[in-house]
Every structure is written in C-alpha cells, then in structure tokens.
Amino acid sequence: xxxxxxxxxxxxxxxxxxxxxxxxxxxxxxxxxxxxxxxxxxxxxxxxxxxxxxxxxxxxxxxxxxxxxxxxxxxxxxxxxxxxxxxxxxxxxxxxxxxxxxxxxxxxxxxxxxxxxxxxxxxxxxxxxxxxxxxxxxxxxxxxxxxxxxxxxxxxxxxxxxxxxxxxxxxxxxxxxxxxxxxxxxxxxxxxxxxxxxxxxxxxxxxxxxxxxxxxxxxxxxxxxxxxxxxxxxxxxxxxxxxxxxxxxxxxxxxxxxxxxxxxxxxxxxxxxxxxxxxxxxxxxxxxxxxxxxxxxxxxxxxxxxxxxxxxxxxxxxxxxxxxxxxxxxxxxxxxxxxxxxxxxxxxxxxxxxxxxxxxxxxxxxxxxxxxxxxxxxxxxxxxxxxxxxxxxxxxxxxxxxxxxxxxxxxxxxxxxxxxxxxxxxxxxxxxxxxxxxxxxxxxxxxxxxxxxxxxxxxxxxxxxxxxxxxxxxxxxxxxxxxxxxxxxxxxxxxxxxxxxxxxxxxxxxx
Length: 511
Description:
Blueprint: H1 8-25, H2 29-58, H3 62-85, E1 91-94, E2 108-114, E3 118-121, H4 135-143, E4 147-150, H5 156-172, E5 180-183, H6 186-194, E6 200-204, H7 207-219, E7 226-229, E8 236-238, H8 240-259, E9 271-275, H9 280-287, E10 294-295, H10 299-313, E11 319-322, E12 325-328, E13 334-337, E14 339-344, H11 345-350, H12 352-355, E15 363-369, H13 375-382, E16 386-392, H14 395-398, H15 405-418, E17 419-424, E18 463-469, E19 490-493
Parallel strand pairs: 1-19, 3-4, 3-6, 4-5, 6-7, 8-9, 8-16, 9-15, 14-15, 16-17
Antiparallel strand pairs: 1-2, 2-18, 10-13, 11-14, 12-13
Helix pairs in contact: 2-3, 2-5, 3-4, 8-9, 13-15
InterPro entries: Ald_DH/histidinol_DH, Ald_DH_N, Aldehyde_DH_dom, Aldehyde_DH_Superfamily, ALDH_KGSADH
Keywords: Oxidoreductase
Organism: Leucobacter weissii
C-alpha cells in the first residue's frame, strides 16, 4: 500500500463518500428502497439516449443493450423489495435465559450493518448490467454503502451519462450527497482501493487484473473484502440419448449461446463434451451458415481473441466444425463470426495447455469422449471453478429411468462441487435476475465462492454482522427491537429451550 496522497479530484470523491457513509447507513430501508426505485425509473426514462451512447462505444446491438437496460432496472427494483422484506439482515434474537444449560445467558441480538464506502470496477461486456448501475453497484447501494465506480475505459461517455441520471434520482429522493461517484483510469481506481477509508471492492474482468486487485486489497495494513468475477469456461455435457432425441434443437441453442454478443459473455459455453461419433457436430455444421458478423467490444479484446483463435486452430487434433472468421477494419475494430472446433479426448488431454484457457469471443470446443470414459472424472481433471456447468439429458434420463442414472448423478455431483449454477437442458448465457440466483463459483470464477453478484443474496457482500449484548432498546438497531418496527423476519431463541437441544435425535437409554 502506498502512502502517496490522492490526486485532488480523487480525494474529493473519497472524502465525500466517507462523509456520506454514516448518514446513508442510517437511512430507513423503506426510504432507501424508494430511492433505488427512483433510480430505476430514471434509468428507464433515459434508456433510449443511453443505449445510443452504448451502441456507439461498444458495438453491441440496440436490442441487446435495450434488454440490458431492462435487466438493470429489474434488478434495482428487486433489491428495493428485498430491503423492505428485510431477510437480508438475518436478524437473530436470543432472549436472556437464567436457566441456560451452560450458565445464565445474556440477551444477545445479531444483525448486519453496512460496511462503508465501496469501490466497484465495472465490466466492459455489460455496459449497463455490470457497470455504473449494475448488479454490484445495486447491491452496494441497497446495503447502504456509498459507491465509487471505476468506469470501464470501453464506455467512458456512457458511464458519466448513467451516473448523472442516477445521482439526480438519488438527490431528488432525499439521499445524502456523496452516495454515488464515477472515476476514470486504472491508476485512480487502484489508489482508491488502497485508501483506508474504502471498506470493500468489487470487480468484473480478467483473471490477471482481478488477481492484482484482490492482492492489493489483501495486502493493505487492514485487509478488506474483495469480490471479483474473473473467468469461466462453463463446461457442458450432452448425453447420447439427448443427441438422438433432439440434435438439431441442441445445435441451434448451442450456436445461439456461443454467438450471442459475439461470445463476449462470462457464461458462454466454452467446452461441450459429447460422445464420440455422435450426430451433434454435423447438426452444428448444418446450423452454422448465415450466422452474422459481430463487432467485438474493442481493438484490444479483438486482438486477444484472434490470438486465442489461432492458437486453438493450430493445436494438434483440432478440427474445424464451423470455420468462422475475424477481420479488422481501418479503425482496428475486430469483426467476428463464430468458430466451432472439435477434438478427441486424448488430443484434448495432450493439448490442454493450449486449449483450456478461456477464449473471450465467439469460439467453442466440442470434446469427443469415447465410450467407457467417466464424465464425472473429467470435471476435476480439466477444470477449476466455473460460474456454470450444464447437462443435456433425454426425457427418460431426466426422470432417472435409464441404466446410466448413477453415472449422471455422479456427474451432477461433480459439477456441483466446482460451479455456482448447475443447468439442465438449457444454456448458461441466460442469467435470470431473481432472488435464488447464484452467479459465482470457486476460483477463478470468483475470488469468493460463497458470494453471488446476481440475486438478492448479493447484498450480503457489503454488510457485516454485529451482535448486541444486553443492549437497552434505545440503542438497538430497529431490526432487533422487540416491537420490530421494520416488520422483518427474525430467528428467535426463547429462554428455557436449551435443555432440549438435540433431544429429538437422542437414543432412549435402555436399562
């Protein structure tokens, strides 16, 4: 951590966020919910203007961007309802108990409080849903923490325009000044992350940069939580019976998932394991003609994709299924059509150094596995943590009615140990914004495999638990007061029950 003073404009931002933290933390959840809905309303109203800026800066289509605005708005509204519900506080009350089995128990009450100012490093590939007002930002604001967004260099104008919309809505809703700021530049972002007034960090991007930022957060004199979403290749397994049942449908869904947004999605299916000799490669090949060319997000990403594509195509045993293409225009922007290749399992093993790294763009690999191979064993052999794992089954297999049911259960178990979301008969590029969603996974998918960046559980990342012992009612957080003015769910352990703990499982004594 450096002792260098912040640049004046960055110091102003950090000081304002730190100054706003106590007042923002003290806002009533219902008031904070109204403010978040006001931001969502303002985003919807400004959507057409913001989409035009985003389209120009990122090359993503109007339809994709408009859908992303809607998703961002919905997540803000979802978090507003979560604030009013109060379950995210995980409030617990243990009443004083003079007859507690271990000696008199004091009154102990536990809830969660906001961490303080947070810096969020936004993503390039989701200029709305993981940027200034995206999932991480929405969770920070919902938690009651001031937010500093380090804008992505791929859409700086959009970042500023979005922030203007949000700040105006927050101000008109009566939120404290200094609750939301946008800064630019990697150096400024690192300086803010190192500042002792910052309580947590979030990031969506590459493994290399994410690891650097996570190490900075951990190396501070007082380390802080850092939640990074870094990389994922999202393995898919397709059974022979599923291919026999609906090869064309699977091929069409696969290509849609690989080519959507030019394959620049953290949930793109990078590897699909299929039985050797199956009909799926031919079905994919037949579905390939006519796939449109799509601009990649920026020249740097396009160059990296071209290099990865060349490396994969040049690996021994790799055979093109759909050749695909990548071209560069006079401005250095890359335009790609999807590339799909196949490789036998033995060649995949031999070329794993060249093949296993994520290809961020419209490219995917079909891995052909011979009869007798154990799919469950392939998961830990080839993959670290991932955001998703997918299994395509036939109808009878889905009911556990086939001879391979035990092997399929073992595969599901193997996937569950290494991914955050296990899908059946679908594709991972659709991430539903809903309370039960889990968008995370073991390293390197994320830096913290118990957290999620989508869904209401995302709020918990920016809170910390605090217990109050024998506290007078006047000094308790509202969620812990006996009259429960917030009407939140609470777990209550009344006096007198400790002597019965575990009794339901005790074997009767036989004399």
